[in-house]
């Protein structure tokens, strides 16, 4: 009996550690808050927070790999916090004060785009930093990405 309790206790402890180490992320981007310090391609196109997704041609896995290789070359890149087969969370730092901003990418293979979201962690206004960052990423992406003016 004591051995069974010990085994159950160890099982619960292992489960708690695994859940803490390997969080589960939903394959969707959060909507932007009401504040103007966020832009996202999943917002309605008529909203000020909207920005176009990153369009690509060819296999989604190739575009995904190119995106992950390009991000560290972008000014302000800090780290890739986590990356999966269809979603990625990167952190960028602003050039002036070094504030950290969260940038997310989600593969939308059916539409041949990567959905994007960039939000400042601090403050109400971002003075266009999030939109500018995503546009710099867009311009830096080589094929298979396509640049629509």
From TrEMBL:
Signal sequence, renumbered to the chain: 1-26
Keyword check for Signal: yes
Pfam families: DUF1499
Domain of life: Bacteria
TM stretches of this protein: none
InterPro entries the record matches: DUF1499
Signal among keywords: yes
Protein name as it appears in the record: DUF1499 domain-containing protein
Organism: Oceanidesulfovibrio marinus
